[in-house]
Amino acid sequence: MHPHPSGSTDRVLPGTVRVEAQAHVTINLLDDRGVIQQVVREYETPVGIGSGFNVSPDGVVVTATGVVQSGKDVSIYAANRVFAEYFKVKIPADFSRHKLKNPDLNGRLQACYPPQRQNSNCIVTAVTKVTVFPYADPPVPEGYPADLVHTGTSPSAPAVLKLAKGGEDSTLPTVPLGTGLGSGIESTDVVGLPVRPSAKTPPKVETAHLDPPGGRTFKPAERSKLSTFLSNDGDGAAVVDDGKSEVIGLVTGGGGAPETLTPVEDIRAALVAANLTARRGPVDVVYETALASYHNKFYANAIPVLEQVLRLRPDHAVAQDHLRFARANRAKGPSTQANAPAARKPAFVLSPLVLTAIGVVAVGVLIAIAVPLTLRRRRQAGEDGAEGDRTPERMAAAATWPPLGTQAMDAGPPAEGSFPAQRRAPGSGTGPSPVAVVPGSAAGVAGGNGTQVVFCTQCGMRLGKAHRFCGFCGHAVDQ
């Protein structure tokens, strides 16, 4: 299977940009023939055109130094232009030094060329203007102005730009930047913008293979197509590792120069030198969530997430394209991810209804066993209690001490901290009984004939002699 998976560049396409650099040149020519005159002209001259990619949602763009910093001297270009216009001589508007047949004009022309000397008759200032065109729909016709923050020492070295406009809300799509150029990376894609992007002119993608794997050069058989790609304003294009869908470098070359990969380690070093950081944004997070469902053909799941991407970034061109496709093919794929092939289930699985029925039956059985046992225990305890009450001692105690709920209820409210209330024998005054009742045990008081009446602390009823359980409520007795 050829290792170029479908959709491996979808994470990179939204953050791809086109970079155009121009030099704004101002030249002041001094004509001292007769009356001294100053001739001021301003010119725009191309510096470089190429591709790049955004690595931060607020607009940090990486491209090749050769795209934004030309090896040609714009002062020479300005001198040729001003002499041709002012002195009406034929000089090409290029970056080469020329000579004129007229000795006087030729001397003045040579004195206008750089470098500046004491006898120079031209003063030149130049400012590089960089414009970034993102892949957006609708497109940005004028692009976004950018400041040149860092350049390298060679045309293939990374250059770092910062958008002066367009990244204020930090919603620009970015590319995932890799951590390093692994030794096993071979299959890649080169992603760039040879023209200003729009829905009709999306980024161009070329497959390529590193030779050797993890190296900085490409297979000889692919260099021809890469040279054509780079010659069409493709310098600075992103190189994508197909295995992880991450940018692992940028490519330069073409026009006779070898096609070379500048690794991601150099890009990260340039960002550090520029005091800037590569990071993903909220739009990227939502967009990649949608890609998971989209590429698995769960279009019904992908549609609302892609719609959320467009609420955050309405001109996200790739999300727009994927949303149109997902809506058109919603019926062809599974409706939800719940319809995806599930893991193998056990051979025997009890349904929730069966489990519920088993639980109900078990509770019923426990109740059927517990209720007769409880009633039997209480009945036996009651019989024992009744027999005990027939003894002379119990008969005397019953005559002098009523059970809880009769005269004892007239003794007043329960004392604080006791349960049930402390009890008082009739005729003993209003003072409390000296016996404190402790919950969970039996309590006794001396009767009028010297015997001790024992009662349950749970329900207050009399207890039979040596009973372990109350015959009325079944409460355990701790004698």
From TrEMBL:
The keyword RNA-binding does not apply. Residues 425-434 have a biased composition (Low complexity). Residues 194-217, 404-434 are annotated as: Disordered. Keywords: Membrane, Transmembrane, Transmembrane helix. The chain crosses the membrane at residues 347-371. The keyword Nucleotide-binding does not apply. Gene3D superfamilies: Trypsin-like serine proteases (2.40.10.10). Signal peptide: none annotated. This is Zinc ribbon domain-containing protein.
